[in-house]
C-alpha cells in the first residue's frame, strides 16, 4: 500500500473521498468513484459496496466484479461473507475466502478469480447498513493498516449514503413492531429486588452527521476541551457518591476514573483526527473498534472493562457534539425503570435514587461493574433482555421482578394488583425474616443447623449482621484478581483479607483460594501454554490446576492470607480438587509460606484449617485417601451438577432439564456425607442448591447440617429449618432414596406440606 500507518493510509483515501462527496452528481456515480479510489489505494483488484435494502444486501457498486451484477446480486443477512459481516457487525480478513464456512459463491459476479477477501460493516446508529469489501487475486491477509483504513472509510461512506437517501430509515431505527397490549419479557437476574415505574431510555443515540474534518487543529481542540469537561464531571460525581467507607464498588469507580485519564485512549482519538476525521467521527471510530474487540472477548470481566470505555466514549461524544441529554441529566420526573443497552458505573450514579426503581439492560452480566454499584445502591437490575427496545416504549408502565427474572410491560389492572400484592408480601416476609435474625436455626426436634453466607466483596460481610448468619462459608478471592489491571500485590490482598476477618469478628470466614482460568481469564497471565479459547472452560485449565502451575500467584495469596490471619484461625479451601496429590501440593505450598513467615519472626495464625471443594465427581472415589488430611469438606453443587449430568448449566435447553432433587444427585451427596461422618470430617454445601428451602430440606434429610448460601436465602431457609422435624424427614428421605420416584420434587413438596414445613 506504500503507507506506514493507519493514519496516513486513511488520510490518503479520505482526501480523495472529500472531493467526491463535495461534488455534484448522482449518488450512484459517487459510489462508482469511491470503489475506484479505494481499490487503487489498497492495490486491490476488487472493491465493492453492498447496501442493505428491504432486508437484503444489494451490490450497489464495484470495481473488479462484473458490472452486470450491480443491483442484481443480493444476499440475505447471514448469507455468505458479506451477509455474515452485516449480521454480526464484524470485520473479516481472509487469505483464502473459500475456506471460510460462510463463503457463498455468486456466479454472476465473476469472483472466482480472487482468493483474498476483507470486508468491514458500514455502520449507522450502531446498525450495519451495508458492507465495504476488497478482494485480491493472490492469497494474502490484508495488513492491519489497510483494515483500519477500510474501517475509517466505511464510517465516511455511512454519511455519504445516508445523505443520498440510500439507507432505509426503518433499518436504522429498527422497525417499530411493538404491540400495544401487555407483554412479558425475561432476563438474567443481576441484582435481586422488585420495582415499578415508567420506562425511561438512558440516552438517545448521538448520530455523527459530519465525518470529514475541514480543520484538523480545530477538531483536536474540541476533543481536548471535551476531555477536560468529562474528567471534571467524573471527579465531581465520584466525590458526591453517597457510599459508606470501603467497598469494592469504590475500587471499580477508581478503575473507571483511571480509564477517563488514560492517555492511550486519547492518543487513539487524536490519531483518528489526524487521518482526517471530525472530533465526533474520531470518537465514534475508536468506539467502533472497541465494540469489535468486545465481540471477540469471551471473558465477561474483560468485556466489562470494555463497557466502561464505551460508557466514557458515549459521554465524550455527547459533550463534544453538545448533546447532553441522558435521562439522568434531564432528570426523572416519576418513579422510573431505566432501560439501556449497557451502563457504566458512573452513569448509574447520576440518577436520583428516590425515583430510580430498577434497571433493565439489553446486555450485562453478573460481574458487570454497574451491577456491583447497583447492589451498593440497592437498585434491582435485570440483564440480557435482548428485546427491551423492541417491546418497551418510552413512558410505558413496567413492573420489574428481578427476583423471578421477569418484566411485565403495559400491565393490566389485574397484573398490577398481583404485583403490588407480591411486593407487599415480599416486604412483609422480609420483615419477618429480619425479626428472625437473632433466632437460632434449630429444628423442632433440637438439631442446630449452621447457616453461613457466600461472599466475594468487602461489603458482603455486612450481611452477617443483617441476616444473623453464622459466618462466611465461602469467600471468593478471585474478584480482587479479576478487576485488577495487574497481579494484585501481596500487601493489597492482605489488606482485603484482614478487613474481611475483622469485619466478621468472632464468626469464621472460609477463604476459597483463587478460582480463575477457564472463562475467567486474567489478561496479565496469558501465555502460549494456556488455552485461550477452551471449548468447555468450566472443565478447563482453571482454579487449583492453574494455581499449582502458576505457583507465584498462589504463593502471594498464601502469604497474604497467613499474614492477614495473624492471631486468628485461618480457614482455607482449595477449589476444583480432582485427586489427593493436588490437595497435598497446595497444602505443602501454604505450609512452606507459614514456615517462612515464622522464620522471619512474623506473627502467625493461631491455626490453619484446610478443606477442599468437592466439585469433580472423581474426587468422591478417592475420599478414603483424602479425608484423613482434611479439616472440612464443602460440596460445590453448581459445578458438581453439571459434571455429573454432563450438562452445561448455562445452556438454556439444559438449565431446567436436570433437577437438583434428582435421585442421582441426592444419592451421590448422601454417600459423601456418610464417608465424611465416618472419618469425623464435617461436610457442608456451597452453592445455589442450598439456598432454596425445598432443596435445603432435602439436603438436611441426607445428613447435611452446614449450608453456605446467598444472604437473601438465609431468612427463607432459616424459616424452613425452624419448622422442620429433622428425624421424621430423615426417615422419609431414606425411604424415598431406597425407591425413588421419577418426580422427587413433587414427592418432597407433598411431604413438606403434610408436615407443616415452610418451603414457599
Distance between the termini: 69 Å
Major beta sheet, strand line-up? 7-14-13-9-10-11-12-8
CATH class category name of the domain at 6-173:
Alpha Beta
Helical stretch tally: 28
The CATH topology label of the domain at 6-173 is Beta-Lactamase
Shape verdict:
elongated
Secondary structural class: alpha/beta
- Helix content, binned percent: 40-55%
Low-confidence stretches: 173-178, 517-524, 527-535
Report the mean per-residue pLDDT as an integer. Answer: 81
Largest sheet: 8 strands, mixed
Please give the number of β-strands.
22
CATH superfamily descriptor of the domain at 6-173: GAF domain
Oligomer: single chain
Tell me what portion of residues adopts beta-strand conformation: 15-25%
Indicate the CATH architecture of the domain at 6-173.
2-Layer Sandwich
Amino acid at each position: 500500500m506504500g503507507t506506514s500507518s493507519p493514519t496516513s493510509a486513511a488520510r490518503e483515501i479520505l482526501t480523495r473521498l472529500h472531493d467526491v462527496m463535495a461534488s455534484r452528481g448522482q449518488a450512484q456515480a459517487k459510489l462508482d468513484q469511491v470503489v475506484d479510489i479505494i481499490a487503487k489505494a489498497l492495490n486491490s483488484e476488487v472493491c465493492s459496496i453492498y447496501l442493505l435494502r428491504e432486508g437484503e444486501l444489494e451490490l450497489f457498486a464495484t470495481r473488479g466484479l462484473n458490472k452486470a451484477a450491480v443491483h442484481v446480486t443480493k444476499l440475505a443477512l447471514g448469507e455468505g461473507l458479506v451477509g455474515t459481516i452485516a449480521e454480526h457487525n464484524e470485520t473479516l480478513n481472509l487469505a483464502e475466502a473459500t475456506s471460510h464456512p460462510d463463503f457463498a459463491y455468486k456466479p454472476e459476479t465473476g469472483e472466482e478469480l480472487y482468493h483474498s477477501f476483507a470486508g468491514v460493516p458500514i455502520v449507522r446508529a450502531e446498525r450495519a447498513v451495508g458492507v465495504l469489501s476488497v478482494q485480491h487475486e493472490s492469497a494474502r491477509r490484508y495488513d492491519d493498516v489497510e483494515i483500519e483504513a477500510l474501517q475509517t472509510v466505511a464510517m465516511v461512506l455511512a454519511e455519504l449514503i445516508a445523505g443520498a437517501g440510500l439507507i432505509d430509515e426503518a433499518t436504522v431505527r429498527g422497525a417499530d413492531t411493538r404491540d400495544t397490549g401487555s407483554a412479558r419479557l425475561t432476563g438474567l437476574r443481576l441484582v435481586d429486588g422488585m420495582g415499578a415505574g415508567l420506562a425511561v431510555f438512558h440516552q438517545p443515540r448521538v448520530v455523527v452527521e459530519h465525518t470529514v474534518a475541514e480543520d484538523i487543529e480545530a477538531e483536536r481542540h474540541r476533543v481536548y476541551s471535551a476531555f477536560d469537561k468529562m474528567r471534571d464531571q467524573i471527579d465531581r460525581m465520584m466525590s458526591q457518591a453517597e457510599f459508606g467507607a470501603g467497598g469494592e464498588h469504590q475500587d471499580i469507580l477508581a478503575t473507571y476514573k483511571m480509564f477517563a485519564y488514560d492517555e492511550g485512549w486519547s492518543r487513539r482519538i487524536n490519531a483518528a483526527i489526524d487521518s482526517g476525521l471530525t472530533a465526533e467521527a474520531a470518537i465514534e471510530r475508536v468506539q467502533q473498534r472497541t465494540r469489535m474487540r468486545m465481540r471477540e472477548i469471551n471473558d465477561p470481566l474483560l468485556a466489562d472493562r470494555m463497557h466502561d470505555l464505551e460508557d466514557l466514549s458515549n459521554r465524550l461524544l455527547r459533550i463534544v457534539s453538545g448533546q447532553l441529554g441522558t435521562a439522568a441529566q434531564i432528570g426523572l420526573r416519576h418513579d422510573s425503570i431505566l432501560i439501556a443497552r449497557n451502563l457504566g458505573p458512573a452513569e448509574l450514579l447520576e440518577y436520583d435514587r428516590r425515583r430510580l426503581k430498577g434497571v433493565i439492560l439489553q446486555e450485562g452480566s453478573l460481574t458487570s461493574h454497574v451491577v456491583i454499584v447497583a447492589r451498593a445502591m440497592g437498585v434491582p437490575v435485570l440483564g440480557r433482555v435482548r428485546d427491551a427496545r423492541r417491546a418497551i416504549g418510552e413512558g410505558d408502565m413496567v413492573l420489574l421482578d428481578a427476583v423471578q427474572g421477569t418484566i411485565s410491560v403495559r400491565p393490566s389492572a389485574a397484573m398490577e394488583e398481583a404485583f403490588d400484592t407480591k411486593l407487599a408480601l415480599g416486604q412483609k416476609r422480609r420483615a419477618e425474616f429480619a425479626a428472625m435474625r437473632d433466632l437460632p436455626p434449630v429444628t423442632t426436634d433440637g438439631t442446630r443447623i449452621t447457616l453461613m453466607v457466600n461472599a466475594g466483596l468487602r461489603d458482603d460481610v455486612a450481611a452477617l449482621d443483617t441476616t444473623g448468619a453464622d459466618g462466611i462459608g465461602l469467600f471468593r478471592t478471585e474478584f480482587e484478581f479479576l478487576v485488577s489491571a495487574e497481579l494484585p500485590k501481596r500487601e493489597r490482598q492482605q489488606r482485603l483479607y484482614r478487613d474481611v476477618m475483622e469485619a466478621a469478628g468472632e464468626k469464621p470466614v472460609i477463604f476459597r483460594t483463587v478460582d480463575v482460568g477457564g472463562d475467567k481469564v486474567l489478561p496479565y497471565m496469558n501465555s502460549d501454554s494456556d488455552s485461550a479459547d477452551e471449548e468447555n472452560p468450566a472443565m478447563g485449565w482453571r482454579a487449583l490446576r492453574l494455581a499449582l502451575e502458576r505457583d507465584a500467584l498462589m504463593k502471594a495469596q498464601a502469604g497474604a492470607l497467613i499474614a492477614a490471619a495473624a492471631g486468628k484461625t485461618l480457614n482455607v479451601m482449595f477449589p476444583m480438587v480432582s485427586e489427593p496429590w493436588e490437595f497435598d501440593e497446595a497444602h505443602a505450598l501454604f505450609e512452606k509460606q507459614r514456615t517462612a513467615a515464622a522464620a522471619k519472626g512474623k506473627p502467625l495464625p493461631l491455626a490453619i484449617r484446610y478443606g477442599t471443594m468437592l466439585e469433580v465427581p472423581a474426587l468422591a472415589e478417592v475420599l478414603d485417601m483424602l479425608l484423613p488430611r482434611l479439616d472440612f469438606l464443602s460440596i460445590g453443587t453448581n459445578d458438581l451438577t453439571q459434571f455429573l449430568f454432563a450438562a452445561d448449566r448455562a445452556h438454556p435447553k439444559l438449565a431446567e432439564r436436570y433437577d437438583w432433587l434428582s435421585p442421582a444427585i441426592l444419592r451421590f451427596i448422601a454417600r459423601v456425607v456418610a464417608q465424611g461422618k465416618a472419618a469425623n470430617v464435617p461436610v457442608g454445601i456451597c452453592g445455589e442448591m442450598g439456598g432454596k428451602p425445598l432443596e435445603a430440606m432435602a439436603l438436611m434429610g441426607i445428613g447435611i447440617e452446614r449450608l453456605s448460601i446467598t444472604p437473601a436465602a438465609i431468612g427463607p431457609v432459616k424459616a424452613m429449618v425452624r419448622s422442620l422435624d429433622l428425624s421424621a424427614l430423615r426417615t422419609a428421605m431414606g425411604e424415598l432414596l431406597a425407591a425413588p420416584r421419577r418426580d422427587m420434587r413433587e414427592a418432597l413438596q407433598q411431604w413438606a406440606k403434610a408436615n407443616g414445613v415452610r418451603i414457599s
